[in-house]
C-alpha cells in the first residue's frame, strides 16, 4: 500500500494530467461540423439523401423530420449517400446529419451536434387508378376521366367487345396532377353499336391498372355528304336531280348554279325537278342535315334539260335586200343545246337545201349567191329538238332587178325575159294599175 506521501504524489500527477487534457486543449475538443444534406424529389422507390464527405468522420447519423416527428434513421452510416426506402410516396421529409469520430481527444462521445436541415424531399409513387365514366346522347360519346397522384398522363382505349385485349388506343390526354376532365371519342363510330372503354394512369413509376369497361351505344351520328346525280327530266325544259338517302339526315339543302327561281331550297326528299327551258347545263350542290349536325356540300353535278325548240333559236333572222346576181345572207343565233336534233332554213314554208349557190341551209347563217328574183321571200329557221319542232320569226329577202329588160332576174337579157314579161302582162291586160 502507498503511504501518505506516495498518495499525494499520485494525486498530483492525476490532477496534472486532468489539467493538461481539460485545460489548455479544451478549445480543440469539437467534433467535425455536419454539412447540410440534399434530398431528391424525383425517384420512385426512395428518397436519396446525399452530402459531401467530412474530414475526420468515421460515420454519419441520418435524422429525418416529417411534420415535427423526428427519428434517427441510421447511426454511424459509412458512406455519404443514404436511400430512405421507408418514406411514404407523396409525403415531404427534411433530413439532417450528425458526424461521428473515433478520436476521443477531438470528439468526446464520438458524435457531434446535428447540422442544418435539408430542403424537402419527396418520394414518387406508383400511379393511382383513374376514375372513368361516360356520357352519350344521340350524337356523341364523351368520357369523363379523373386522375390520381403520381400520374403524368392517361391512356384511353376502346373496343367493340368487353375484352381489353381487343381494345385499340384512342389517345393519351393529359390533365393536371390529381385533376381530370372530358375526353371525346375521336374515332368514327357506327350508329347503334355498343362500345366499351377503358382507361389507365401513366406515370414515371409505371402504369396504373385498367379501369373499365364502361359501355355505351351511340344512337345517331352526323350525316355524310350526299352524292347527287342528274339527267333530263321527263317533261321538256326540266332537269331531274336526285341522290340516295343519307343515314342520320332529316333534310337536305341544295343550291343550283347558275341560279334562278327555285334554285335554292331545303327539302326532306331526295329529288329536285328544276325548270331549265333553255337547255343549258345546270350544276347542283347538296348538303345533308340532321340532329347531329350537317355535312359539307357535295361536289357539283351538271345536267341539261330536253329544251323546247324555241330555246335553240336566239332572236329573229336578219333581212337582206340585194340586186340580182349579188350574194345575200340571212342570219340568226342558233343555240347549241344538248337536245337539238336538227335545224333547217325554210323559204315560204318550203325547205331550203345546199346547192352550188346556196350554203348554210342547216346552220344559223344562210348564204345565197347569184340571187334571182325567185329567191325573194320570207325565210324562217325551223328547229327540231327531242321535245318537238318549231320555227323562228321570218326574215325577208328582197332581190331587185338590176337591168330593166331582165324580167326574170337571171342577170342576162334573153327570150326567157320576154316570156316572163308576157306571163305577167297578159293576165293584167285591161286592168288599171294604182
What key phrases describe this protein's structure?
disordered N terminus; rod-shaped; 434 residues; mainly beta; Immunoglobulin-like; 4 domains
Describe the structure.
The structure is a single chain. This protein has 434 residues and is mainly beta. The chain has four domains: 29-122, Sandwich (Immunoglobulin-like), CATH 2.60.40; 131-217, Immunoglobulin-like; 229-303, Immunoglobulins (Immunoglobulin-like), CATH 2.60.40.10; 309-400, Immunoglobulins (Immunoglobulin-like). It has helices at residues 4-22, 415-425; strands at 38-39, 47-50, 59-66, 69-77, 81-84, 92-100, 121-122, 131-136, 141-146, 153-159, 168-171, 180-184, 194-203, 206-207, 211-217, 229-232, 238-242, 251-257, 264-267, 271-275, 282-290, 293-294, 301-303, 313-314, 320-323, 328-331, 333-334, 340-347, 350-351, 358-359, 365-368, 377-385, 388-391, 395-400. Strands 25, 28, 29, 32, 33 and 34 form a six-stranded mixed sheet that branches. Strands 10, 11, 13, 14 and 15 form a five-stranded antiparallel sheet that branches. A hairpin with a 4-residue loop joins strand 8 (131-136) and strand 9 (141-146). The longest helix is centred in the N-terminal third of the chain and has 19 residues, at 4-22. The termini are far apart. The relative contact order is 0.08.
Shape: rod-shaped
Which class of the largest domain in CATH terms?
A: Mainly Beta
CATH topology of the largest domain: Immunoglobulin-like
β-sheet strand percentage: 35-45%
Radius of gyration: 55 Å
| pLDDT < 50 runs, ≥5 residues | 1-29
Distance between the ends: 196 Å
Our count of domains comes out at 4
Mean pLDDT: 86
CATH architectural grouping of the largest domain: Sandwich
Helix content, binned percent: under 10%
Amino acid at each position: 500500500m502507498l503511504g501518505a506521501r506516495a498518495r499525494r504524489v499520485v494525486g498530483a500527477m492525476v490532477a496534472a494530467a486532468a489539467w493538461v487534457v481539460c485545460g489548455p486543449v479544451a478549445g480543440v475538443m469539437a467534433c467535425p461540423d455536419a454539412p447540410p444534406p440534399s434530398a431528391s424529389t424525383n425517384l420512385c422507390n426512395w428518397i436519396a439523401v446525399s452530402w459531401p464527405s467530412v474530414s475526420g468522420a468515421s460515420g454519419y447519423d441520418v435524422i429525418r423530420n416529417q411534420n415535427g416527428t423526428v427519428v434517427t434513421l441510421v447511426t454511424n452510416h459509412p458512406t455519404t449517400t443514404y436511400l430512405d426506402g421507408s418514406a411514404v410516396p407523396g409525403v415531404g421529409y427534411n433530413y439532417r446529419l450528425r458526424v461521428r469520430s473515433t478520436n476521443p481527444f477531438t470528439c468526446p462521445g464520438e458524435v457531434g451536434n446535428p447540422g442544418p436541415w435539408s430542403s424537402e424531399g419527396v418520394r414518387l409513387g406508383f400511379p393511382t387508378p383513374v376514375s372513368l365514366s361516360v356520357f352519350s346522347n344521340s350524337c356523341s360519346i364523351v368520357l369523363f376521366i379523373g386522375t390520381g397522384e403520381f400520374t403524368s398522363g392517361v391512356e384511353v382505349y376502346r373496343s367493340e367487345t368487353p375484352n381489353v385485349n381487343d381494345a385499340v388506343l384512342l389517345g393519351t390526354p393529359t390533365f393536371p396532377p390529381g385533376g381530370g376532365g372530358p375526353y371525346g371519342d375521336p374515332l368514327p363510330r357506327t350508329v347503334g353499336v355498343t362500345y366499351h372503354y377503358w382507361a389507365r394512369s401513366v406515370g414515371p413509376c409505371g402504369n396504373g391498372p385498367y379501369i373499365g369497361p364502361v359501355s355505351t351505344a351511340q344512337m345517331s351520328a352526323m350525316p355524310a355528304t350526299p352524292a347527287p346525280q342528274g339527267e333530263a327530266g321527263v317533261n321538256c325544259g326540266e332537269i331531274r336531280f336526285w341522290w340516295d338517302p343519307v343515314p342520320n339526315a332529316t333534310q337536305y339543302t341544295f343550291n343550283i348554279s347558275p341560279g334562278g327561281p327555285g334554285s335554292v331550297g331545303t327539302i326532306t326528299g331526295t329529288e329536285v325537278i328544276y325548270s331549265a327551258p333553255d337547255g343549258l347545263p345546270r350544276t347542283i350542290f347538296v348538303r345533308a342535315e340532321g340532329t347531329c349536325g350537317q355535312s359539307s356540300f357535295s361536289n357539283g353535278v351538271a345536267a341539261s334539260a330536253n329544251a323546247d325548240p324555241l330555246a335553240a333559236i336566239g332572236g329573229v333572222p336578219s333581212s337582206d335586200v340585194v340586186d340580182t346576181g349579188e350574194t345575200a345572207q340571212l342570219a340568226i343565233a342558233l343555240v347549241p343545246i344538248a337536245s337539238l336534233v336538227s335545224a333547217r332554213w325554210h323559204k315560204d314554208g318550203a325547205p331550203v337545201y345546199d346547192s352550188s349557190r346556196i350554203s348554210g341551209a342547216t346552220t344559223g347563217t344562210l348564204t345565197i349567191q347569184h340571187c334571182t328574183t325567185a329567191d325573194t321571200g320570207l325565210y324562217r329557221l325551223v328547229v327540231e329538238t327531242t321535245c318537238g319542232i318549231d320555227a323562228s320569226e321570218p326574215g325577208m329577202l328582197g332581190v331587185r332587178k338590176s337591168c330593166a329588160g331582165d324580167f326574170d332576174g337571171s342577170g342576162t337579157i334573153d327570150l326567157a325575159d320576154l316570156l316572163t314579161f308576157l306571163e305577167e302582162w297578159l293576165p293584167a291586160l285591161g286592168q288599171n294599175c294604182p
